[in-house]
Amino acid sequence: MDRLIERFIHYLAVERGLALNTLESYQRDLVGYVGFLERSGIRDLNQTRRANIIAFLAELQRKGRATSTISRNLASLRAFYGFLLRDGLIDGDPTANLESPKIEKRLPKVLSVAEVESLLEGPDTGTVAGSRDKAMLELLYATGIRVSELVSLNISDVNINMGFLKCYGKGSKERIIPLGSVALTTVGDYLLKSRGKLLRDQTEDSLFLNHHGQRLSRQGFWKIIKKYAQTAMIDKEITPHTLRHSFATHLLENGADLRAVQEMLGHADISTTQIYTHLTKSRLKEVYAKAHPRA
């Protein structure tokens, strides 16, 4: 079963061109599933039935996994069994006609403009690490790119003179995003004064480097943003997507076109972007309730 998972992941990487994070997610889900089957005494995927899938999902629920996580696991299993069936490696698909659990759409948590400003003022730009951190935070808020896209940037992806960056999102789709003056200044300062001090290997083309001179990881950035959230005394839950959500919400609150925001975020479907319009409406209600004397 492990070899079949490897074959499937290879197919997703080579033929579908999925991003590394997506591949890791599929692999994690499937390894967990195979472990469940082995504990149940099943060592051949042809022995699996619909009841085994339901039992696996029920186990995830008992462990307190979120509905979105359970739904994602089922999607991983559907894709896996579909691949095996197409290649003639199994006789039937036990996931057929299984309904995904209904996911409650929760509005993403965003920071206020004042909270974003406090967060962005945290780094000490007089230090090498502070200069890098300031550039990363400003870039993230200026463009709304995903953290995985941020740490994947190379020097050639940022055009300081023309004021834009190029990034590759899900499915390796390229998009061009304009950069504001503050982000351009901080990134330019980092490149001019600090990146060279972090650099160990002259052939390294990663834009943002760690103290070893290598590409900064998502985990490394996660620690950085948590640190500055504490410094800014922001008591909201901060996730790697917080500045992305805040970017989209603040643009829409100030009259940006929904289609333009969709393009900058790299959403394939505008319905994904529309969740931010619900968020701006709810914030308007809050403002009205606080400000109107007869609310």
UniProtKB/TrEMBL annotation:
The Core-binding (CB) domain, residue ranges: 1-85
Localization (cell): Cytoplasm
Active site: 146, 170, 241, 244, 267, 276
InterPro entries, per the entry: CB (IPR044068), DNA_brk_join_enz (IPR011010), Integrase-like_cat_sf (IPR013762), Integrase_catalytic (IPR002104), Integrase_recombinase_N (IPR010998), Integrase_SAM-like_N (IPR004107), Recomb_XerD (IPR011932), Tyrosine_recombinase_XerC/XerD (IPR023009)
Gene Ontology cellular-component annotations: cytoplasm
GO molecular function list: DNA binding; tyrosine-based site-specific recombinase activity
All copies of domain Tyr recombinase, residue ranges: 106-289
GO BP annotations, alphabetical order: cell division; chromosome segregation; DNA transposition
Assigned keywords, A-Z: Cell cycle, Cell division, Chromosome partition, Cytoplasm, DNA integration, DNA recombination, DNA-binding
Functional note: Site-specific tyrosine recombinase, which acts by catalyzing the cutting and rejoining of the recombining DNA molecules. The XerC-XerD complex is essential to convert dimers of the bacterial chromosome into monomers to permit their segregation at cell division. It also contributes to the segregational stability of plasmids.
Family annotation (PANTHER family): PHAGE INTEGRASE-RELATED, TYROSINE RECOMBINASE XERC
Family: Belongs to the 'phage' integrase family. XerD subfamily.
Self-association state and partner proteins as the record states: Forms a cyclic heterotetrameric complex composed of two molecules of XerC and two molecules of XerD.
Protein name: Tyrosine recombinase XerD
Species whose genome carries this gene: Tumebacillus avium
Classification lineage: Bacteria, Bacillati, Bacillota, Bacilli, Bacillales
